[in-house]
Amino acid sequence: MPLPTANRRILLIDDMPSIHEDFRKLLAPHAGRPAATAAASTLDDDEAWLFGDAPTRAAASTAPAVPLDADFELHSAHQGQEGLRCVHDALAADQPFAMAFVDMRMPPGWDGVQTIQALWQADPQLQVVICTAYTDHSWAQVMQQLQANDRLLVVKKPFDAIEVQQAARALVHKWSLARAANATREGLEQAVAERTQALRVHERAVEAALDPILITGPVEEGLTIRYANPAFHKVTGYTPDEVLGRHPRFLVGQETGQAGLHGLGRAIARGREGEALLRSYRRDGSLFWNQVRLAPVPDEHGQATHFVGILHDVTEARAQAQALAHQAQHDALTGLPNRVLLQDRLRHAIAQARREQTGLAVLWLDLDHFKDINDSLGHAVGDALLQGLAQRLQSAVRASDTVARLGGDEFVLLLPGIHRQGDAGTVARKVLAALSTPILAQGHALRASTSVGVALFPQDGHDPEQLLMHADIAMYRAKAEGRNTFQYFCGEMSQEAREREALTQELHQALERQEFELHYQPRWCLASGRMTGAEALLRWRHPHKGLISPAVFIPVAEETGLIVPIGQWVLQAACRQASLWRTQGGPDLPLSVAVNVSARQFRQHDLRRTVEQALAETGLPAHQLELEITESLMMQRHEVVADTLQALRARGVRLAIDDFGTGYASLSYLRDFPLDLLKIDRSFVQQLHERATDRAIVQAVQSLARAMALTVVAEGIETQAQLDMLRHLGCDQAQGFLLARPLPAPALADCWAQGPHPLLRGVTAAPPPGPT
Which of 190, 206, 660, 753 has the most CB atoms less than 10 A away? Predict the structure, then answer.
């Protein structure tokens, strides 16, 4: 705090003008004089000081001393009331007087006592000297009236010059000392007040804190608890009386071996801050996870006199973090490890197998036709099936094995300690057997047919990515081998997988480059011999490989989802061609075109909108378009399929069941769906003239169709004997290589122009004899 400057302001209150002149000579001799005179006076004063004729200089102090050669700033008043006004004015201007000389008698106004009392009431810090020439005063009474104190001196007239100067100098310096002391005291009081308020704030913060706070003594005194805030009681259940004087270790119960405790102990021994996560116990014995932070409170020598401990209950946050970690590593539907956790465990298993020179097996499982179940019975049933499947898989393997779900209907088994293919095959057979019995899923007893691929470490891969990829490749081979079986990975499969991936990429390019084309297999009326329509069959004319069979690329298109855009292209192209035939041949060329619709097109696309768009863009009448669906599609999501087919039938589109008799649809589907044609599968036609059972089936289908006003079409006619038998059984229409192979669009128009088929002209002959 800066010290005040020296105050040389003095007030003289006396009724005699001569006294004022004398005081001015004594206290302000340089005022109004030339500088040289003032300098001489200063030299005189210094001489007096050096040779002892002047009073002693003031000792150094914190208050500014008035130099011996300095003039005082003398102000005059001739009556007490006037002097009081001067004091008020000085205080208002923040230029108070340091002292005042007051005459004892100043008629007709106040006397000295009254004046001093008034002055001190206005400015209690004012130093006062009473000036008097009389001896008739009772100084004891005067002192009693003024409550004699160290602010008052008495100087008798006639004045001694040195006495006046010393009194002025001493009291002015005393005023400065008092002013400095007051400033220091006020500063200290303010600092104490601020510190007290800060302590009050800190105390309130500790009291209001949501986290428990403990204050302990030093290590030398046993680190006993000196204070516990209200939050400590709220979190732990212990009252202050139950914990004061105890070591905080009681919170961990018998678990004194926790690693976090050792870390805190080292921090305490070194007098440093420490932090640890501890298992702690409430008063009722319940566990909570306690994040403790301990900080020493050092004295001026750096020695810890106390320790402050802040406890934070992280039980809920820890549980949430564990739940999030579990969610990040586990499948939400089944609770099984997901791909992330599987790969982590697989890395560790491979490392362990390397150290111990053992092996392991990876089994990749994929449900067969799971999408059919999901679409026919709904996602809730599909989810229940996956949950039941997960339980079956876990019960079929060891506790040390890992069952993981990668998503959808794909599962992986990690089997440590497997050395030979045969051991892995044993597990695969066990898994297939476990899944062979029905799983109850929301009231539906479902069998989970599964294809399994097996890869072994180290022979089939040295890292998780390789092993999983090779097990996946082997799984696809199992599907190709008929499904519901398992296959071991072999090197040839990698080449097949690469070829499969290349084929997928080429299919994408084929769509972009319009490498697809349609051929049309005619369908003939067995009664008239005339062509009634044609089935559109997809062909891929590869720029380098030539014509690629649908048997090669259609399965890949189905699995990759490319069948949807390819199917849209087929529908558009077939409708465009049929419309072109109609334009070229007129109403006399009423050929219908049949297009196969895959189950995936039904699932992933709005078929109604696609058909409407194709008819609108090509101008083909709806009755000249036939859509062929399979029995398995009819089983999927019965209501949705029925609604879609009803809408298409109402539009005029004709509907046919392809490969009838090979699926699992019940006869109720024939009743519920708006069908126009039944296409008998070629498997019933191939040995029709030799097997009575096949003839009976065809005849039964024909009778059923006739009763329901449906047209029957026989597929795969390859011999004259088959044709004759079908005509004898009353089949309506037929198609097959005997009658015509699939033709390009121009050739089909020429075939129509030739009229009835040569093999179908004339009267139906008696049926050839067949075995009984």
Answer: 660
